[in-house]
């Protein structure tokens, strides 16, 4: 039995029926692993980490980016001071309360160790969790789902977007929610008619192959989403612009963020309505700022603004669940430290990873930070990845999600975490 | 083992028994599934009469095809320069209207500010998306359409980026389809000189670093197209090039762009010497070109100007890495999601030997034992576009309202011309089989089976005829059992939604 077969077997048989007590039940007297939540947001296109968490305290930053550097704290559209050296992009001002209450942290100069500057490769590696190898068929979030003990809900893992992303591909069941229906108003579909549903059930229900599995998971998730979204929810904001979710459906799972994007409200409602929801993944495109990136205002700012609003909606919508939730925001690579000839930035290497959550030791910018001199940059042009993103994820899986060591090494095979990534930058 | 069980469970629904899955009938269905977007009523009989080999030859040589039933192909798009002139004119009109409206307090005035540009975008998108579906469903030159789809995704551009919204139809009609069965280097050259590609991958902004223009306009090297030209279009990501090769190729491509006027970030037509390059209205601006010598993949290229681009295309197209990369893509598209290295190597050898003759490579592919092997029969999962097109082909009906088809493709995650990333839509099961999308297909299948797909109303196909069309009546015992006991109006729906019809 190879590793993949083992995962399939593990996911389908023993753990699915009866969580092994002892192996999983250690909780340090705190909340059990079943109550832990993880939300991963991937910014596709290579978000410019040096303008998300900017080293405004380093004059090199201003030398490298004469047209696109964020101005100093206190000036017009200037950065928001974090620790006297780093500052937050002003479009992310709505997140400052979480920085102040220590539930927002950053890990700078973080990312995939693979040097590829190809979007496709770099996303592939960040999603497979095996940088440099093309042969890993599953995504690391899917392997994580396989490692979770309980399978109480058909929507234990949900992917927002019309197609299953690479990070969720693999044997474990993941519900995809392409376009969320308006609250309390579920559009009936042909398969909601019993006589039609019965026919398709007979066609697919007894199949043991991937088609049969997709069908069974689709039906189960469809029923659950219908139940959740057709039930009015007091906490729901009346202003949810559900139609905006259609735009998410239009762009193959990596929509470009628009104003009033309702993702935070929608996703938090799913978590609120079904306690079995544990893992969610969202992705947003449009971060490939080769041209006219802007500063405190402009192209990048226009993407960060709705992301910040959505994250606040998400956290507020989660309510008490936020204490047990970790939200990670990552991007396949950072961008060149130096601006290019088009007042933009080209594909780079290291980036900043964002962490939000009730148990994050927030209020710090972590990571090994060397500086921005040529000899401190990767190939004299990019931030290095002095922290492997898997080190951060592994640590979160252990400390926050409370996954045992063995399970973590099943999520990231052949990876040895060098230890605590939470060192001060 | 899974495959064996699957094959053993096949039985005959109509027609005669067969001991091997690829008897003549199965071969005909296989060849129709792979060389076309799926059989139409009567196709199996026609190929049987004509002979499989003859059918393949005819599809490989569509110009020699004798067409029995008339097909009025939708008119090709206007050339890119014409479309850009129309866009420019629409912008001018809108600008004048804006000025005219700025004096009154008309609240509707603002809405009309971009009316002409908006209308041009809307009508063009409507026209070329409908044409794509129309051709895929109706063209007798099916392999040409299949290969056009293949190459479009290989050289993908998204209509969601700026002016490409009016150009992608022209790009497909002029830079892709005419070469779909021709020489590979011709497609590389055509896409390289097409305004749609130059704009999509930012080569319009790729200029010599040493020569900022007089007005201090942003200028400098942009690696985007250079990188994808090697990674996606030719050598492949493991094709043995380095970051330095990307930079060298970007230098070679400096000055190749469009004449859009400064406002659009392109080259100013009035104060820079430009010359048209290629047949699609792209320009080469020698003032923006880096004339230093370059070294690409070990080949020294002197700084001669536009001739460097030809040299680079030649080097890239002749590389064994390109032969291997393209052969892998073709084998994956036509044979199996994970094609055997033997087949890929065989095709790559043919590719190199014929200097990238696509027709010759495909002829070998269609003659290979891998293409005809039982394990590669019905092993491909239909991407949404193929699912929709094959459904209408099988039903033998013409959509009256194409919007429903386009909306469905968007909901399936494959909007027409809408793949944002330059790697294009995948054609593997891993990419497309997922629970939510499968349920949506079953809804669509129900509509096809009862003759109601949004505004489209048609006589639903009778289920035995439908079964005969799509697979000569061969279905698994379970599918047969389910279909025969359904109420009459749902029998065809079950076939459109059957596991068998998801595969090809």
Question: What would your notes on this structure say?
Answer:
- The complex is a heterodimer of chains A (about 425) and B (about 500).
- Chain A has about 425 residues and is of the alpha/beta class.
- Chain A folds into 2 domains: about 35-185 and about 240-410, 3-Layer(aba) Sandwich (Alkaline Phosphatase, subunit A), CATH 3.40.720; about 185-230, no CATH class.
- Chain A is about 30% helix and about 10% strand.
- In chain A, the strands form 2 sheets. In chain A, strands 1, 5, 6, 7, 8, 9, 10, 11 and 12 form a 9-stranded mixed β-sheet that branches. Chain A has a 3-stranded antiparallel β-sheet with strand order 2-4-3, with no helix packed on it.
- In chain A, β3 (about 80) and β4 (about 85-90) form a beta hairpin.
- In chain A, α6 (about 140-145) packs antiparallel against α13 (about 405-410) and α10 (about 265-275) packs parallel to α11.
- Chain A is globular.
- Chain A starts with a helix and ends in a 14-residue tail after the last helix.
- The model of chain A is unreliable at about 1-30, about 180-185 and about 235-255 (pLDDT under 50).
- Chain B is globular and about 75 Å long.
- In chain B, α2 (about 25-35) packs across α3 (about 45-50), α7 crosses α19 (about 385-395) and α10 packs antiparallel against α14.
- With about 500 residues, chain B is mainly α.
- The model of chain B is unreliable at about 1-20, about 105-110, about 215-220 and about 260-270 (pLDDT under 50).
- Chain B is about 55% helix and about 5% strand.
- Among the domains of chain B are: about 1-40 and about 380-500, no CATH class; about 205-320, no CATH class; about 320-375.
- Chain B contains 26 helices and 9 strands.
- At the A-B interface, α5, β7, α7 and α8 of A face α12, α21, α22 and α24 of B.
- The fold-level CATH name of the largest domain in chain A is Alkaline Phosphatase, subunit A
> Hey, roughly how much beta strand do the residues of chain B contain?
under 5%
Helix content of chain B: 40-55%
Number of helices of chain A: 13
Biggest protein-protein interface?
A: A-B, 61 and 62 residues
